[in-house]
């Protein structure tokens, strides 16, 4: 009895459940790796299927890392005759290389670039681009020299810089929003020819911050920088001052300077304007998330006007945007206003009062870090987070607080970033995704280099083995033939050289040829032991060996196969390596590619995993309940299954491309899942009880049931077997979760044909359509009345379970997205119109392709 109870309990708690759950997660991991996405915390994959809010950093995430320097604006502020816009903003941009001496010195010194001992300059891409455009180079010990200071350009300066050296840097701070440098400058007075050493301060930072440090703010200062930020430019204010013009200040005094002493009483030197183009797939990825009812928001430390411009480009916002920020010339530091991007609207706001519902309903909102700090401990903060689309000028700490606030509101969050300032937010989000600055070409080159290195190592081992036994070196594999000198043991040399030349320089390019002595420019492997063995074999080559060249060519193919098999064995033992940054360490998901489309791919696989997990729970629960009933109640009636019957029943035992608006069920503890399992189980038990009693009326129960006896065919055994077979079919077919989250059961060909096959077997046996099959399965002959009753019971069982599933699914399942992700009717209308236009364009393209094929066939017939 104890053993029987243990069997029942182990059947109810299936041992295969952990394995199947792990299989579902591992399948998603493998699918993500094909997109160059790697996960360090696989348990987070199902969370990706529940994402409500997708948060993106701007620079380096939605926009590229490579900044384009437009030039310097605002150099003519306050001067008459300068080109100006309607609001007085000066729109003229001067090329960086044509700016004045002070502006040039600020651009050359106010940066954090460092030159390594190896000669590489490291630092922010923006600062690299600026220094390159300026025509200056950074040397050792922070010295700077100008390559672009031509005689014509130098003639416009009263003094010409001869040498510049940065003595001290005050690094950029997200809180201070500026950086500065103290440098010594050696200049030559063009009138007197006298050289003067001075100490120069260059400051660069946010225009709003630098404004308060200027001695005299030029007119239309704010209008000018806002003009460029509205048009998507990244704008930095430049300022300077001289600590000393006649003599150099000593290093000790410079080291004792406080930052406040340096960054004050400055003079305006212009606005540096940079453009950061969108990534190619940014708009497509955001559109996919929008159309699948995800809330997409931007969290950036950049200027709010620039952030709003980029958000409109990628369709994060599509209505008029109001920015919550401090009013102009606010002395108290306590006031807030809603203002439009053109500043024609200004609405005062009290953080202690509820938000205006009309604004929340009709406008898209942008909030600055300053305004967010004012709402930190206010009741209206939750409502503000609920309706905000763009966060600008926020610190890394505020990014983290935004994610915490959204999580506390009950939303599942995703954060995508690429830099150190995103680390806190990546840790706090349910799904953190770090984007590395890689491309598909980079990955191909890395993989090719890895494969070449592996093959070279394997070949060197082969050469050593052959040399040990005084045998000639084996043929060089095709992949590395260009690394070794030509010869009879390198029959693929010419093809390999041509292949490498075309890779690097296109058709017709020439690849460097290894010299006769075994050396080749830029190829380290030629003087390896394998290469030396090749040289020795070439020198000792005789006429007889030349006759064997054809045989060696044939052996080369065999050697390639052998080498490839050895490489595959070694590859399995070597784990992939990823060059991580700060964001990659913090985020559970890392994409080697810089593609934003990684986010929809992660969400797609998360939904697939979540749906598969819930499906497994339902199917295993039903199978376990049925098995428990069979092992207990039916077992007492002496019911057993034959080997053939178990084999047939055991035959029963990928994600879609698009994202749907519907959401998978978040967990199994809801009325739909529990009700569906219990309802289907009730129908299965009812049909089992009915058919067993029907059989007992037809064939009386034997009084001497031998529970330990061998299997003997009987009417009750045959009826219960066929009924449980159709129950297994219905369990898989009805509870299969297909569209819109995964491929439908019809698209899953293996399962589809398997279910059709077993269904055909079940009904064929119930009707004795193929008597030989019944005999093979050890089923007893059936009467006509029993055939009708059995077939009807099987149909009722299947249809009843289908009805229970559909009714409970429609009544209790909640596939709707959260309120924060719901789309407005006008947005849905625009999306449907766009889909119709895309479908019409695709149809027209198909028609054109078909017409082209017809014309080609007709032309072929005429010819």
Automatic annotation (TrEMBL):
The superkingdom listed in its UniProt entry is Eukaryota
Which ranges of the sequence are coiled-coil? 827-862
- Composition bias type Basic and acidic residues, residue spans: 542-551
Chief subcellular location: membrane
Q: Which UniProt keywords apply?
A: ATP-binding, Coiled coil, Magnesium, Membrane, Metal-binding, Nucleotide-binding, Translocase, Transmembrane, Transmembrane helix
- Membrane topology per record: Multi-pass membrane protein
GO CC annotation, single: endoplasmic reticulum membrane
Q: Show the stretches that span the lipid bilayer.
A: none
Query: What biological processes does GO assign it?
Result: intracellular calcium ion homeostasis
Sequence segments annotated as region (Disordered): 534-553
Localization terms from the record? Membrane
Q: Which GO terms describe its molecular function?
A: ATP binding; ATPase-coupled monoatomic cation transmembrane transporter activity; metal ion binding; P-type ion transporter activity
Tell me any Pfam family this protein matches: Hydrolase
Protein name in UniProt: Uncharacterized protein
Species assigned in the record? Cryomyces minteri
